[in-house]
Amino acid sequence: MCTRFVHNGSDTIVGFNFDIDLAVWTHTIVKEKDKFYIGIKMPDGDYHSFHGINKNGNVGTLLYVNGNEKGKYIADKKCCTISELIENFIKGAITLDDALHIVKNNTVVYASDTTMQAMLSDKYGRVLIIEPGLGYRLEQEQYSLITNYSVLRPEITKPYIVSGDDRDAVLYLKLMRRKPDLHLFVVMDFPHSLLLVLQLSSKRFVPVISASTRSIILFTFAE
Predict the structure, then answer these.
(1) C-beta of residue 58 within 8 angstroms of C-beta of residue 122
(2) Which of 27, 100, 199, 202 has the least C-beta neighbours within 10 A?
(3) Which domain holds residue 128?
(4) Confidence band, pLDDT 50/70/90 cuts, at residue 210
(5) Are 117 and 94 in contact (CB under 8 A)?
(6) Residue 25: pLDDT band with limits 50, 70, 90
């Protein structure tokens, strides 16, 4: 299961862990001149950028979520799939303001083959949470957090919470304990935060990004 956060202090720091089942998904880490992403091989044979960062500061992450009927895929010109939106954001084809315009003026739906929600953020620490069928939220808080459950309508995914899955609470408590000196957080603090919320899986990626230093640290953990 995945966790994604943004922390706004003296620096804007973004991090996410990405858990995948190696028996199901073929993946690769792609490093290009303008972007870095975890490529997931899809039926079309291409490695798609659903989780990554562009040099302009765009960071996009798709997270699995139990779907709702209102977000169901529809082949319609007035609809935009969440996967298409996130890829364009990571590629740098659209900005956060562009993404906001899209969700305001179009119906955002799931991809045809899976149900996902997204968190997008930019170099200014602005965050756009998009949940197909449920809506969106633009924020610029001290910290933002999303996992595999709905943020906008928690009651929708409450029945699907896995027993013992307390990632939200664990990371929230860690942040609150450091609240008096959150501005002192540095990049190396965050892998530990994410390790606290990692679930058992076949493969774990923990990219941590610093906006001020424009640096990326990729931590990989294997069973």
Answers:
(1) yes
(2) 202
(3) 3-222
(4) low
(5) no
(6) confident
The DSSP call for residue 78 is T
pLDDT over 90 at 81, yes or no: yes
CATH number at residue 49: 3.60.60.10
C-alpha distances in Å from residue 210, one per residue of 124, 178, 187, 215, 218: 11, 19, 7, 5, 12
Q: In what order do the strands lie in the sheet with 27-31?
A: 27-31, 35-41, 47-54, 59-64, 116-121, 127-131, 135-139
> Which of 77-91, 155-169, 184-198: highest mean pLDDT?
77-91
**E strand intervals along the chain:** 3-8, 12-20, 27-31, 35-41, 47-54, 59-64, 79-81, 107-109, 116-121, 127-131, 135-139, 143-146, 203-210, 215-222
3-class DSSP state of 152: coil
What is the distance between the alpha carbons of residues 71 and 131, in angstroms, rounded to a whole number?
8
Instruction: Provide mean pLDDT across the span 53-68.
Output: 91
Is 71 strand, coil or helix?
helix
Given a contact cutoff of 8 angstroms between Cβ atoms, the answer to whether 127 and 138 are in contact is yes
Instruction: Let me know how many helices (H) and strands (E) the chain has, helices first.
Output: 5, 14
Beta carbons of 187 and 216 less than 8 angstroms apart = no
Total domain count, the chain:
1
